C-alpha cells in the first residue's frame, strides 16, 4: 500500500481519482476533528473511497505537561468514526507550560526521558484502545544526550509496546546533518516493530545543512535508503508526504509509482500486513 497525505490544496483530485491514485490517505486528525459543512462532506467522501491513517501533531508525547484527556476523548471518537487503521505521532514535544510551541522539538536522549515517555504511551494506548505508533523525527541539535538515538527509540518501543513509524527521509536528513551512517542507523532500530514508513523531500540550505521541509521531490539517495530499508522489514504501508509547493498531480503520481515499484520488487514474496 502506497499512500499520500490528504490536503485541501488538491482534495478534489482524491475524490475523482483521475490524476492521483493512492492506495490510502493520511491526515492530521487535529485539522479535521469537529469540522462541519462542506469540508466535512468532502472528508466523508474520501473516507468512503480510501482507507484512512492518521498522523497527529499536538499530543506532545515528550512534554512535561499532563496529557490532554479532553483532546484524547475527541480523538478516540474521531478515530472510531473513520475506522482509522493506524494512528501515529511524533517522538518529540510541542507543548510546555500549557503553551503550544507550533514546532516538533527534540527530546533529550536520556533514560529518565525514556521512562517518562513509556508511561505516557501506555496511558494513551490504554485510553484509545489501539496500538500507538511513534515516528523518529528530524532534529538540528541534540539536547543533553546520554544515550544514542537508536538506543533511545529502541528502549521506548520495547518498553511501551508501541510500534515504530520509520521516516526514512528523517534518517537521511539527520545522518547528513550530524555526520553519521544512515544505513547503520537503520540497522540499529527495532525493524521488526516497524508498522509504517514515511517518505518525503527536503531542502539543502548549505553544504552541511538539510532542512526537512516536505516541500520538494524525493531525491535519489533517499529512494536508495528506502530500498535498503525495504530489504530488511516486512511489508508495511508507505506514505508520500508533500505539504506545500505542490506540483502537478502526474509528478506526485510518478513518485507514488516509483515507491510502489520498489516495494513490489522487494516485497513480492512477502505477506502484506495491512490490506
Offer a concise description of the structure.
The chain has 275 residues and is of the alpha/beta class. It is built from 9 helices and 12 strands.
Care to describe what's here?
The protein starts with a strand and ends in an 8-residue tail after the last helix. With 275 residues, it is an alpha/beta fold. A hairpin with a 2-residue loop joins strand 5 and strand 6. Helix 4 runs parallel beside helix 5. It has nine helices and twelve strands. The mean pLDDT is 89. It has one domain: Divalent-metal-dependent TIM barrel enzymes (TIM Barrel), CATH 3.20.20.
For the record, what CATH class applies?
Alpha Beta
Low-confidence spans:
none
Give the N-to-C terminal Cα separation.
7 Å
Order of helices and strands: EHEHEHEEEHEHEHHEEEHEH
Architecture (CATH level 2) name: Alpha-Beta Barrel
Specify the number of helices: 9
Radius of gyration (Å): 18 Å
Oligomer category: single chain
Largest sheet: 8 strands, parallel, barrel
Strand order of the largest sheet: 1-2-3-4-7-8-9-12
Percent helix range: 25-40%
The general outline is globular
Count of discrete structural domains: 1
Topology summary:
Elements: E1 2-5, H1 11-16, E2 25-27, H2 37-49, E3 52-55, H3 69-81, E4 87-90, E5 93-96, E6 99-105, H4 111-128, E7 133-135, H5 149-160, E8 163-167, H6 168-178, H7 182-187, E9 194-200, E10 203-206, E11 209-211, H8 220-230, E12 238-241, H9 249-267
Parallel strand pairs: 1-2, 1-12, 2-3, 3-4, 4-7, 7-8, 8-9, 9-12
Antiparallel strand pairs: 5-6, 10-11
Amino acid at each position: 500500500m502506497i499512500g499520500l497525505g490528504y490536503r485541501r490544496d488538491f482534495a478534489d483530485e482524491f475524490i475523482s481519482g483521475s490524476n492521483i491514485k493512492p492506495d490510502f490517505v493520511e491526515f492530521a486528525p487535529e485539522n479535521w476533528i469537529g469540522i462541519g459543512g462542506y469540508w466535512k462532506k468532502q472528508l466523508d467522501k474520501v473516507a468512503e473511497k480510501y482507507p484512512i491513517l492518521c498522523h497527529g501533531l499536538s499530543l506532545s508525547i515528550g512534554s512535561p505537561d499532563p496529557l490532554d484527556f479532553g483532546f484524547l476523548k475527541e480523538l478516540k471518537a474521531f478515530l472510531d468514526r473513520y475506522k482509522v487503521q493506524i494512528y501515529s505521532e511524533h517522538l518529540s514535544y510541542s507543548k510546555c507550560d500549557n503553551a503550544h510551541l507550533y514546532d516538533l522539538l527534540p527530546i533529550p536522549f536520556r533514560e529518565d526521558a525514556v521512562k517518562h515517555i513509556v508511561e505516557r504511551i501506555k496511558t494513551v494506548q490504554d485510553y484509545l484502545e489501539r496500538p500507538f505508533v511513534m515516528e523518529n523525527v528530524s532534529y538540528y541539535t541534540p539536547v543533553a544526550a546520554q544515550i544514542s538515538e537508536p538506543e533511545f527509540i529502541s528502549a521506548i518501543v520495547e518498553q511501551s509496546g508501541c510500534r515504530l513509524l520509520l521516516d526514512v527521509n528523517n534518517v537521511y536528513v539527520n545522518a547528513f546533518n550530524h555526520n553519521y551512517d544512515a544505513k547503520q542507523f537503520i540497522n540499529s532500530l527495532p525493524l521488526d516493530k516497524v508498522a509504517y514508513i514515511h517518505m518525503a523531500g527536503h531542502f539543502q540550505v548549505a553544504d552541511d545543512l538539510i532542512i526537512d521541509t516536505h516541500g520538494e521531490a524525493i531525491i535519489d539517495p533517499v529512494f536508495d535508503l528506502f530500498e535498503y530499508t525495504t530489504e530488511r522489514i516486512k511489508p508495511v504501508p508507505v506514505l508520500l508526504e508533500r505539504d506545500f509547493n505542490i506540483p502537478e498531480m502526474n509528478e506526485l503520481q510518478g513518485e507514488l509509482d516509483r515507491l510502489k515499484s520498489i516495494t513490489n520488487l522487494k516485497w513480492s514474496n512477502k505477506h502484506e500486513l495491512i490490506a
